[in-house]
Design goal:
With 230 residues, the chain is mostly helical. Helix content is 80%, strand content 0%. The radius of gyration is 19 Å and the shape is flat.
Amino acid sequence: MFLHVVVAPLLLLASQQSSLSEDPMLGLTRETILEMGFDWWFDYYCEEVGASEMSMDIATVTYAKCLDSRNATKLKALPRARAKWIEDVESAFREYRLGAVYSEMALAGGGTMYSHAAARGRYDDEILSENLVALSRSKRRKPSEVEQKEIARLTASVRAYLSSLRADAKRKQPKDSWVRADLLEEESAKAKAGFDRLCRLLEVAGPDDALFTLRAADSWVAFGRGEGTR
């Protein structure tokens, strides 16, 4: 049942993409969409096909795919070690992000809002890569004392959130029978594994890389706590 809740909206996204528009790029090139910027493109797409949760998903994912294509080109121009590090950071971030979203879905017993958040989070993945590529031009330096404290604070914030997921499950069981503790354990483990991997990668990063990445990770803590939207 729960897997149906997770997978069905993703299958629906593919089918609705066809019904909303045969061409999710609306005849525009990748370069044009990126030149428009996310907000303009998002509004333009939703005005053209009609505003709905599904059209918002498609607009966001389409922009993310355009950004992914441009990021891939820029990565090829970087030293291989740096490019591989950025690819690994994005992969770890995605594992953490999706695990966190589906943990919240398990706590709620389902809900399409989480599938929408999972899909739209692809934009966050690509924005992370884009900024890490841009930061590749920055000169490596040691973090200041203020930066060290902020890195520690953000890391602690995410770790506290991940720890709270299982605590929430124990507190809500068995009275709140909609909570799927088994799936919560599985997804929260994925989120923790992703964040652990992310932290290991950031051990060799400069403060600019670390701060941007950890702030992106912490933004999903806000979403999980109901303090942000996607």
